[in-house]
Predict the structure.
Amino acid sequence: MVGAGLTIGSALLVTSAFADIGGEGGGYEAYKTAVKTTAAASNATQHYVLSVQDNGQELLNVNGTLKASKAARGVSGSAEIATGAASELLEFYHQDGSTIFKSGSSDTYNVASEKDAADRAEGHDFDREDPAVRQGLEKLVDALVGHLKNNVNLSDGADGAQAVDMTLKGSQIPATFNVIGSLVVKEALNAENAHQDSALKDTGVVGIDLSRLDAKLPRLTQDVNVDEVSLHAEIDGNHYIVHQIVELAVTGKDEAGVSHRLTVSADIDTSDVNATTPDTVDLTGKKINKVEPGKLQD
Amino acid sequence: MILPFAGLPVVRQLQDGLGVAGVASDQYAVTILNVMTLFVLPLLIFMTASDMISGELGDKTIRSVLSRPVSRTKIYAAKLIALFAHTAVLLALVFVASEAAAFLLPDAGHAAASMGDAVLAYAASALPLFVLCTAAAWVSLGFKNASGALTVCILLYAAAKGLALVFPSYMVFSPVTYMNWHQLWLGGSIPEGRIFAILSLLLGCGMVFYSTGHYFFDKKRSVGECICRSASGSCCLIWRC
């Protein structure tokens, strides 16, 4: 009896070791490595789709591409912003220390030039980061993630490719995260609405009539709750994240007591890692509108 | 029973003061379970186990049981079954109380909808608690007074929890690390591989604690010496102090 119990018990313990119980957070570690590797890439092209839905109805959709190169200190891209019926195409470039915006509906290039080199250096100093601070931050994030590591699933594909999945629902989201997240979302929505309500609709800065794109996000005031957080990432053999989908669902009620379920999703495809050159635009002979850089930051 | 209700004012304050749900009514029962499995239920298990084993060894009331024509195997099994049942009843009480409390929160309709999930979480949380019962019984066998066993149980548990924070990679083999494994059973994607690994670890630990505990209990001489055994030899008829 004792012998049998001990034998079966020990066998089960060994089984758990072989079932990779020590692999806690395997998916989390793989994802962390991939994030670091991808962030360290000197250039890449991203195709992204951002979408905000309220009770299943799409309020805002942003669809575009982004080419960025750290070495060349250049960025170029386009975004098509659609809110219900209205839509607007926006092109943007960052080249030779100036930021250029162009609306699809006009042929004027809005140029914001950074005044001096010091300003430029301050804004684009990607590499000067203290490694100790970085390591400390990493430890902090690890500690905060804690047991949630268990919820990150890792599946291996061909040629060293990996897929990472995580879905946290309701009570799986730690109460602290939920309270802080709900507060952030609530304040963000209120700030957004306050901005829309104010008379300060400065449409001239980037040459786009933003008021036309009023997304009419609901103002949630009661029972704001982060309902679901999900992440799907595909990692290639070189530890670059090639495809990533992040979704966040928030529920709550507006002032009239109507229930809303807001879902925010981002679908990002990354390609041409270390083989991307941002597009540049030749401004000679084009219509140019000079913009104060300070004004752009507001 | 009272604890689930004690959390209500905190949640209400969050909702009225900040307008965030904090803990929505449909998540309330599981949130209470998280707190309960972390320290309240383990503490209650340690108290019962130390009383049931160390206490009885100490005041020698265990002899009245040992002198009956029942084998020690059955006595040890009966003690653990009683401990399991006690734990299960505690869990059931906490479940009923926290669901009742959840209905006092706004949007109580959601609480009913998520009750299936809550039942699953409470049922899953019983396993690590049962393993803790076998471990507490195992520790209690080494003591002759209940308070000593209780203190050591609490210290060992706190140490295991503390070490898991400092050396997470070494403590994956500690069953105490998985007190909140019920969270794995909720939500969209159930990580089968992890659940299987943790299940076999917990079952394995439980069996090893039970078998070795049973062995120690069977061989224990400290309760007195037997001078006359029954014909089958399984129980003692006359004890010498």
Remarks:
- Chain A touches chain B through 49 residues (CB under 8 Å).
- Chain A is about 30% helix and 40% strand.
